[in-house]
Every structure is written in structure tokens, then in C-alpha cells.
Amino acid sequence: MASIQRSLLIEAPISVSFDFWSNFERYPTFMEDVARVAVASDTMTWDKRDNGDTVPVEVRVVERVEDRVLAWRCSQGPERAAVLTFAPLEGDATWFTFTLEYDADEGEGDVAGRLTATSRRLDRELRQAREMIEQAHIEASRSQARQHSS
To answer: How much is the average pLDDT of 92-108?
Structure first.
């Protein structure tokens, strides 16, 4: 199993960050290899893009602690799991850590090349997710400010 871990500062409250990541149906908007997510309680079907095809993958939430931890694992196909942790910071910010574990031996090409490609894709996806969370927080704050001033 290979493991990639990334941590980043999100300029939004922990509840906003956790809610964003808990909404799995949002994943296709920032995850390059996820075409669609259908949620049924703690089990989901992710339609993953794979060399021009779409492959359904069953994913199960294995841990959920509100505003602290969210973890999922693929229950079929190549082994893949993620643990997302959230820590509150002063000033309504969140320290977010994403750990991805997966079978690096699955797929085409050399293992080092796949690790590098996966790492780069994860970096892009996390930057995009952070931008989406922060933008949503800014817009919600502006909306609240307008409502209070009315």
C-alpha cells in the first residue's frame, strides 16, 4: 500500500470545512477521476473515470466524527481508502489533513510514475476544494452581513 498525506490551512470555520467534505455528491466538481457519486446512507457508488470508461466503485464511510474525522474505504476493486482530519484554528480557520492509501501496484506504467501522478492530482484537487470552501464561506459571510444591515 502506498500512502500520500497532505495538510493545508483552510480559511473557513471547521463546520464549513467538514460539511463541504461530508457532501460526497460534491466530489465530482473537484475530483478529476470522479464522474458521479450516488449516496445511500454510509454506502456510496462512485462512478470513476478510468481510461475513457466510467467504472462504478462501491465506497463505504468507515468513520465519521462530526467536525473531526471523516474516513472512507473502497469495498471493491483496487484497495483505496482516505482519512480526512479537521482541527480548529483561531480566527475561524481549519487545519485539514487528507491521507490517501491505495494499492500503487494497480494500473499501467511504473509505480514511481503512478505515485507522482497521483500526488500531483491530489495536490490540484485539494487546492480546488480549498478555494471552493473559502469562496463559499466568503459568500455566506457577505450574505449574513447584508441581512444584518437590512
So the answer is: 85
Measure the CA–CA gap between 121 and 127, rounded to whole angstroms. Answer: 10
Beta carbons of 95 and 87 less than 8 angstroms apart: yes
From first CA to last CA, the distance across the chain in angstroms is 55
Which residue from 40, 85, 32 is spatially nearest to 61, judged by alpha carbons? 40
pTM: 0.88
Decide if 56 contacts 74 (C-beta within 8 A).
no
- Per-residue buried b or exposed e for 120-150, using 16+ beta carbons within 10 Å of the residue's own CB: eebeebbeebbeebbeebeeeeeeeeeeeee
> What is the rounded distance in angstroms from the CA atom of residue 31 to the CA atom of residue 48?
10
* Cβ count within 10 A of residue 110: 10
pLDDT in tens, 13-56: 999 999 999 999 999 999 999 999 999 887 899 999 988 899 99
Q: Using CA atoms, how far apart are residues 44 and 33, in angstroms rounded to an integer?
A: 15
